[in-house]
Amino acid sequence: MSTPVIDRTAPTEHPVLDVLAGRWSPRAFDAETPIDEAKLAAALEAARWTPSANNTQPWRFIVARRGTALHAQIVESLMGFNQQWAGNAAALVVAVAETATEDGTPLTHAVYDLGQAVAHFSVQAHNDGLYVHQMSGFDPEVVREFADLDPRFSAVTVIAVGDFGDVEALPDVLKEREVAPRVRRPISETVILSA
């Protein structure tokens, strides 16, 4: 399915890399096209090479392709309106933080490092023509149960990945969000101290 892509380039205050300005999080995913396995592998490889405190690499991923039982389980873990659109994504990826070592030592940087890994994943995916939408609206305990996660691992976010779909297929409220102007807090309100 070929769907026209909406230009959602960020109106940045300062120049940034095109791949960063062009990255956005759609909810309209192509429900027919399977995931491009080479592009998915490249995104996972980018995540693998993320900077990591003491090279602990406290990130793991659960990767589920549309049409599999695992994909359906992840969709079932989603909350609210995420269930209305995310199931169309060619793949759903659960980002998991390793919050303690096997001997119980806390990894206080785990969520930070996982966030970097997901950022690397999303930028690589966008660079290669895939779209990514990260969600916090899911039940991590449902994921823990079906994935049999050890207590030292925590599911942090679910990532929808795939080709861009038809905005018109979304419910009206989501359709409006899909085409609304992109806004961000100004840098002056983000930097709390600067000398």
Structure description:
With 195 residues, the chain is of the alpha+beta class. Helix content is 35%, strand content 15%. The protein is built from 8 helices and 4 strands. The chain has helices at 18-22, 37-48, 69-77, 82-85, 110-127, 140-147, 172-179, 187-190; strands spanning 59-65, 91-98, 131-135, 153-162. The protein has a 4-stranded antiparallel sheet with strand order 1-2-4-3, sandwiched between helices. Helix 2 (37-48) runs antiparallel to helix 5 and helix 3 (69-77) packs antiparallel against helix 6. The longest helix is centred in the middle third of the chain and has 18 residues, at 110-127. The chain is globular, with a radius of gyration of 17 Å. The mean pLDDT is 95.
Architecture blueprint of SSEs:
Layout: H1 18-22, H2 37-48, E1 59-65, H3 69-77, H4 82-85, E2 91-98, H5 110-127, E3 131-135, H6 140-147, E4 153-162, H7 172-179, H8 187-190
Antiparallel strand pairs: 1-2, 2-4, 3-4
